[in-house]
């Protein structure tokens, strides 16, 4: 790479640069290892166990901010745009230029939340990336960022429309735990507040958007529907198995207290006869299991009037809200719906 002395120094790639690496579908070995390590920690909940080893490794080197030419070399190696987002641990190191953008963070738990991907080059763990990018953003962007990191999909590296499948990098529990053990927990920030209601496991942005609108409390623009689960496995009876031709099915957006499943009908997924037959069998099997079904099309989701009618009908089935939504609450619900579906501002 021809950059800084990796035997004595290290750099901490963070923020938007780290997120772009997580979104990359490149076959470079360090990106594959980055995703594998994060997926393993998400599955086993052992992220904290690596902190001591990392702190020990970092203690043998010194933090540095690369020069412009060194940043350019790092950017070429990792296929990242400039400026690079780096985390620094002292005010004296902080600087901004066309090549680098430094973010000061002196929290000891954050300094340990990195994975080494090249000698002397560390990338922020997903929980720290979320903390850095979502703490002060709006509710919609915070939810969608958490959904991407704790879901089975990834957006394109530059955040443009399009996605590809990927194992979940973290979980709602790990995200909450990271905020709770941070020195400054920022409980009032939206990035932290949504985590008490966050639903992971989305397989697409549309599933994440639907879950956000249903599960978030009224004060944050949602409908406050509890018990929302994404891609819930529902075991079938022998008779239902015969109908579905499989042992279980998965509910797209499953509301456990009501045994109510919302199926999102995307345009791409329902073009062929085979897909239509599979979905019909699934629907019939769920009805045999006593599950109520609501089919939600793209057109209904993108129509405020139609989506609101469907969501309000489900909300009224639950005993949580004794009073009708006030005009202020209705305004927040509309605003969240619009921000999730139509606000293309990339704050991540």
Oligomer: single chain
**Total beta-strand segments:** 12
State the helix count.
Answer: 15
Q: What's the mean pLDDT score?
A: 87
- Cα(first) to Cα(last) distance is 28 Å
Q: Provide the domain count.
A: 2
| Class inferred from helices and paired strands | alpha/beta
Write the element-wise H/E pattern from the N-terminal end onward. EHHHEHEEHEEHHEEHHHEHEEHEHHH
User: What does the main sheet amount to?
Assistant: 4 strands, mixed
- What gross morphology would you assign? elongated
Strand share of the residues?
15-25%
Write up what this structure looks like:
The protein is an alpha/beta fold and 348 residues long. It has two domains: 9-125, no CATH class; 139-342, no CATH class. The chain is 43% helix and 17% strand. The chain is built from 15 helices and twelve strands. It has helices at residues 15-23, 29-44, 51-59, 68-78, 108-111, 126-134, 139-149, 172-181, 190-193, 205-215, 238-244, 273-288, 298-301, 304-316, 327-342; strands at residues 9-13, 62-63, 84-88, 100-104, 114-118, 121-124, 153-155, 163-165, 228-235, 248-255, 260-265, 292-297. The strands form four sheets. A four-stranded mixed sheet has the order 2-1-6-5, sandwiched between helices. Strands 9-10-11-12 form a four-stranded mixed sheet, sandwiched between helices. Helix 1 (15-23) packs across helix 6 (126-134) and helix 7 (139-149) packs across helix 10. The longest helix is centred in the N-terminal third of the chain and has 16 residues, at 29-44. The radius of gyration is 22 Å and the shape is elongated. The chain starts with 8 loop residues before the first strand and ends in a 6-residue tail after the last helix. The mean pLDDT is 87.
